[in-house]
Amino acid sequence: MWKEDVIDLKLTKFFEVSARVLLSLLITAILLAILGGIIRTFYDMRLVVSHDFHEAFRTILVDVLTVLAVVEVLRTALAYFSEGRVKVTYIIDTVLVTVLTEIMAFWYRDMSWDKVAMVIALVLALAGVRVVAVRFSPRRIREEL
């Protein structure tokens, strides 16, 4: 039995080290994506002088909000790296930022009311799930005990 425990311990250690190495690579890729998004945003600033203001600002706004969504993904990865688990609130925040990016893009398009209503329902559902996730988080439950 002792030999099986040693093997289990070695396997667990191997998986933990492997996960950390892969997560480090993922974090590096996310940081490069953020850098690329920032460069793209500055590159799109040229649209302000060469295109219609609304089109230029929509493009820049979507670029900025997309970078912020990737920052939320980075925050999720860093939380997993430090705590060993993914926080549901971080994932919900990421999805909310992404959906809000799409809502901002809706301002510049003609959208049917049913699509707008579905997006509003999605945002409200995500907000409700986020409230529940914060209210019933494992850390908060442990603190109450």
UniProtKB/TrEMBL annotation:
Main location per the UniProt record: membrane
Domain of life per record: Bacteria
Recorded topology in the membrane: Multi-pass membrane protein
Compartments reported by the entry: Cell membrane
This protein's name: Phosphate-starvation-inducible E-like protein
UniProt GO cellular component terms: plasma membrane
Segments crossing the lipid bilayer: 21-39, 59-81, 88-109, 115-133
Keywords: Cell membrane, Membrane, Transmembrane, Transmembrane helix
InterPro entries assigned: P_starv_induced_PsiE-like
Annotated Pfam families: PsiE
Species for this entry: Geobacter sulfurreducens (strain ATCC 51573 / DSM 12127 / PCA)
